[in-house]
Design a protein that fits this description.
The chain has 13 helices and 25 strands. It is of the alpha/beta class. The strands form seven sheets. Strands 1, 2, 11, 12, 13, 14 and 25 form a seven-stranded mixed β-sheet that branches. Helix 3 packs across helix 4.
């Protein structure tokens, strides 16, 4: 049996080599990365049939419809000692609902390894078709429209532009659409947007506490009224299954003969002819390296950590920083990898006495609802069931923090998430540790460098306490941080709060090359044939969860790129 397995492995390797030899090595466009933005771009560039497009993904397939294995997010998780454990069995669905774990890493694919001097131990970025969309919490909280006018201040990226592309990307239907402001929502986009499929009793109690504590209810968090008060978050979920752009865009696009997807293929370098990008070097799962060429452009959609890493490895970045690794300088771009941003988060904990969390949800009826109709608690994401948006200071033009109720973990405890949306934290960086593409890159972003950000989390905690003081008797005593005063709260924040997977800003867009890395057409300054379309180009904060904004601007980028070749 053992010798037979060896023979099978050798035959598979030979087949891969033969197949590789038959693959094309020249395309019109090469899209690096198949996450939220890359799938949209690959779809749109190939839609006319005029352009030959290659999408490259470092990881493997994810959902079964895309050639992988569907998973429930709690199937694999890390326990308190950091040991990988097996939770619920695999199913054909993958929405992380009311899990038995406090946190999870649902994919068996390794995370991108990083090093850090600022205490960040996990990039939360994955090598996987669908990118971070395949393991995030599916929150579709847009940035507030005013953010783009006040903080971005880039022509073509204002509030009206943001609304246009948010609507273009979304498919909001049924009763949910009827209860919203129709002028602020799209009905013909690819990505299905919905409220949770199950009105969890804990969420209802949260809203009751909001009303009793005097907070306003927001009927439409993406509508015209200020996002100040309590409201329902929305999710990219289609009939109980997460609706990534890999599913909503790439799956059908791959039926076209002019679009090709290569999985388990790591891009190691951008190939330049002088200062023009003409292709990429890649290494496949068997360690075989080759060059692939683009007649028109290379588009980087590898995310806010890997896009700057690839630019640096290819000689585009701060010359003093990358020349010490023996990398040939193509263009000295001082801001590549700089201006890295993120959002804070942590979970305060209260006792919860009602028997309406797992394991109480594990009933045949709920399983049947999910399997047959894609509804019920098993189809409802556990994160941000209900939210409260507030200002850390009344002098601020808009909200910069929110509090939400998160199920999960112990059924007798309730997590109340504290998060920032417009923190001062915005000066992190991504740097190389080696010229070897397989080596970890370095991420530095100090979540607590600015006292204002610690104050934001303190204010969020105070609002959580105000809510819980108004909540029903089902919510009991505060467990964490617990009583102890201001110094105790700050110590708890420093020990328990960190950053989310909301990386952005590391190849910042600007109207002049001395202030950024890419121009307003997503082109990398100083070179040609190269664009960046992912959250790394964001020139300012996003006062919400990232994926909706990434997808929206990917639609605009696709239009801009295609307009160059009409």
């Amino acid at each position: 049996m053992r010798s037979r397995a060896v023979v099978v492995a050798i035959l598979a390797l030979l087949a891969a080599v033969v197949s590789a030899g038959q693959e094309s090595n020249t395309y019109d466009f090469i899209v690096v990365g198949s996450g939220a933005s890359g799938c949209v771009v690959a779809d749109k560039l190939s839609a006319s049939g005029k352009h030959k497009v290659l999408a490259i993904e470092a990881g493997g397939a994810s959902q079964r419809d895309l050639g992988g294995t569907d998973f429930v997010a709690s199937s694999l998780y890390y326990d308190s000692k950091g040991v990988l454990q097996v939770g619920l069995p695999y199913t054909r669905y993958d929405v992380p609902i009311f899990t038995l774990t406090t946190w999870f890493d649902p994919t068996p694919t390794p995370l991108y390894p990083i090093t850090s001097d600022t205490g960040i131990s996990n990039s939360n970025a994955v090598k996987l078709l669908g990118g971070s969309q395949s393991h995030n919490a599916m929150g579709w909280m847009r940035g507030t429209l005013s953010t783009f006018d006040k903080y971005w201040n880039i022509p073509g990226f204002g509030s009206a532009d943001a609304l246009k592309y948010y609507k273009m990307s979304e498919n909001v239907t049924g009763a949910m659409y009827d209860g919203l402001y129709p002028d602020y929502h799209g009905r013909n986009g690819n990505t299905q947007i919905t409220h949770g499929y199950y009105n969890a009793s804990a969420g209802i109690k949260f809203f009751q506490a909001c009303a009793k504590a005097g907070y306003k209810y927001i009927k439409d968090i993406h509508g015209p009224e200020p996002r100040l008060g309590c409201g329902n978050n929305v999710y990219n979920v289609r009939r109980g299954v997460r609706d990534t752009t890999a599913m909503s865009h790439l799956k059908n696009a791959l039926k076209r003969s002019n679009l090709e997807l290569r999985l388990s293929t790591q891009v190691t370098k951008i190939i330049f002819n002088n200062t023009r990008a003409i292709g990429v070097q890649v290494t496949d799962m068997f360690g075989i390296s080759r060059s692939i060429y683009a007649k028109k452009e290379v588009i980087l959609s590898a995310g806010a950590l890997n896009t700057p890493k690839l630019l640096l490895l290819s000689g585009v970045g701060p010359a003093p920083e990358i020349s010490k690794f023996g990398i040939k300088i193509v263009y000295d771009s001082p801001l590549v990898g700089k201006n890295l941003r993120n959002h804070h988060y942590c979970n305060a904990v209260w006792e919860y006495k009602a028997a309406d969390q797992l394991p109480f949800y594990s009933t045949p009826q709920f399983s049947l609802d999910y399997a047959m109709y894609g509804t019920g608690p098993w189809a409802t994401p556990e994160i941000n069931l209900a939210c409260l948006w507030v200002k850390s200071s009344e002098s601020l033009p808009e909200t910069d923090i929110y509090v939400s109720i998160n199920s999960g973990g112990d059924p007798h405890k309730m997590n109340i998430m504290l998060a920032t949306t417009i923190p001062e934290m915005a000066d992190g960086n991504v740097t190389l540790t080696s010229s070897d593409p397989s080596k970890p890159f370095k991420v530095n972003l100090d979540p607590f460098r600015y006292p204002s950000d610690i104050n934001r989390l303190k204010v969020a905690l105070s609002h959580a306490r105000r809510l819980m003081a108004s909540a029903t008797a089902d919510f009991g005593a505060e467990i964490a941080p617990g009583p102890g005063g201001d110094a105790h709260d700050e110590a708890w924040i420093r020990s328990n709060c960190g950053v989310q997977g909301h990386w952005m800003g590391s190849t910042r867009m600007a109207t002049t090359k001395n202030k950024g890395v890419v121009d307003t057409s997503f082109r990398v300054y100083g070179v040609s044939g190269l664009r960046v379309v992912d959250s790394s180009f964001f020139p300012g904060p996003v006062s919400g969860q990232l994926q909706s904004t990434v997808v929206a601007w990917a639609h605009k980028a696709s239009e801009v790129i295609l307009a160059s070749y009409n």
